[in-house]
């Protein structure tokens, strides 16, 4: 058994417009890093957190990484040694890119690797969902499942948990822009309507089915026209500066489709190649700059690997 390990886990785009809580995909950047070491003293300890501006708790019961590792150890049996965790945030907190998910997944991948991969990536998902429950009050899987498994993921069912890896066009890219405005996940979830009209539900079902079909068929036009959300986006768009202007700019620049990443404020466009993605992020950032809003951008193909061990 190794005494230490360093792991990177990727950010994710959840919902993918029409698939609230059931669709997500992983990207290559940004992401988080966890360094995990075996120590003589029993228990789980968080010795260091960087890149969080002091926002995250060092208390192992309140941190998503250590709490998920604790659930993992409760399941497989407690070792006769302790675990020390360093968390290095390499992505913005509250960005809508699965920040808590990336941290949690890095920790779970690390502990599972130290225990010689007792569980598969898919089997780790329920433990990662415990971290999401601690972070935002609800244990959804549309961030943690793609972060653990890589690729495009569909959560067909939560009870029982049924997770499906979806195919996708090889050259599919994401253009992501994070406007530096505050949209807490808990608040964004509370804004969503608790009841929907049947006619709206029918539209949404058709779009989710169309998006999944488009991914299977590698049909960009079908993917694009399925990326429409009549249930969640109309409410959450209010929290994002000039959301509909940004969407039109992206579509005019060649985006296949455009939407909110997770609960926002990050927005994303799917594109046919990296050049289109870079062009779109540049235009969106220029527009936000005119509004005196700072932003970060990321361009990535769909991440197929999920978490990886790094030197």
Blueprint (SSEs and pairs):
Elements: E1 4-14, E2 23-39, E3 43-50, H1 64-76, E4 82-89, H2 99-114, H3 121-136, H4 144-149, E5 152-158, E6 161-166, E7 173-179, H5 185-190, H6 198-217, H7 220-226, H8 233-236, H9 243-252, E8 257-260, E9 267-271, H10 274-290, E10 295-301, E11 308-309
Parallel strand pairs: 3-4
Antiparallel strand pairs: 1-2, 1-11, 2-4, 2-5, 5-6, 7-9, 7-10, 8-9
Describe the structure.
- The protein is α+β, with helices and mostly antiparallel strands.
- The protein folds into 2 domains: 4-166 and 304-309, Ribosomal Protein S5, domain 2 (2-Layer Sandwich); 173-301, GHMP kinase, C-terminal domain (Alpha-Beta Plaits).
- The protein has helices spanning 64-76, 99-114, 121-136, 144-149, 185-190, 198-217, 220-226, 233-236, 243-252, 274-290, and strands at residues 4-14, 23-39, 43-50, 82-89, 152-158, 161-166, 173-179, 257-260, 267-271, 295-301, 308-309.
- Strands 1, 2, 3, 4, 5, 6 and 11 form a 7-stranded mixed sheet that branches. It has a 4-stranded antiparallel sheet with strand order 8-9-7-10.
- Strand 3 (43-50), helix 1 and strand 4 form a beta-alpha-beta unit.
- Helix 2 crosses helix 3 (121-136) and helix 6 (198-217) runs antiparallel to helix 7 (220-226).
Specify the CATH class of the largest domain.
Alpha Beta
CATH architecture of the largest domain: 2-Layer Sandwich
| Largest sheet properties | 7 strands, mixed
Assign a percent range to the helix content: 25-40%
What is the number of domains?
2
Number of strands: 11
Along the chain, the helix and strand elements come as EEEHEHHHEEEHHHHHEEHEE
Q: Give the termini distance in whole angstroms.
A: 17 Å
Gross morphology? globular
Mean pLDDT level: 94
């Amino acid at each position: 058994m190794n005494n230490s390990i360093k792991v990177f886990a990727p950010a994710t785009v959840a919902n993918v417009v029409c698939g609230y809580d059931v669709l997500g995909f992983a990207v290559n950047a940004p992401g988080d890093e966890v360094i995990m070491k075996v120590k003589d003293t029993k228990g789980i300890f968080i010795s260091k957190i960087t890149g969080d501006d002091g926002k995250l708790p060092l208390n192992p019961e309140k941190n998503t990484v250590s709490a998920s590792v604790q659930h993992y150890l409760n399941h497989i049996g407690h070792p006769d040694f302790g675990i020390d965790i360093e968390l290095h945030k390499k992505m913005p907190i509250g960005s809508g890119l699965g920040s808590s998910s990336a941290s949690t997944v890095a920790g779970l991948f690390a502990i599972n690797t130290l225990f010689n991969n007792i569980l598969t990536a898919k089997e780790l998902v329920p433990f990662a969902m415990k971290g999401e429950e601690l972070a935002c009050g609800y244990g959804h899987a549309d961030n943690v499942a793609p972060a653990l498994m890589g690729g495009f993921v569909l959560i067909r069912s939560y009870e029982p948990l049924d997770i499906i890896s979806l195919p996708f066009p090889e050259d599919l890219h994401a253009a992501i822009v994070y406007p530096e405005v505050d949209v807490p996940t808990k608040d964004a979830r509370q804004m969503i309507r608790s009841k929907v009209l049947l006619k709206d539900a029918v539209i949404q079902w058709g779009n989710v089915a169309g998006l999944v079909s488009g991914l299977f068929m590698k049909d960009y036009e079908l993917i694009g026209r399925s990326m429409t959300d009549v249930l969640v986006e109309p409410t959450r768009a209010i929290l994002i500066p000039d959301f509909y202007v940004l969407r039109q700019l992206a579509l005019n620049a060649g985006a296949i489709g455009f939407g909110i990443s997770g609960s926002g404020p990050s927005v994303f466009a799917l594109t046919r190649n990296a050049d289109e993605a870079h062009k779109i992020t540049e235009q969106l950032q220029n527009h936000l700059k005119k509004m005196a809003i700072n932003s970060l951008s990321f361009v990535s193909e769909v991440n197929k690997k999920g978490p990886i061990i790094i030197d």
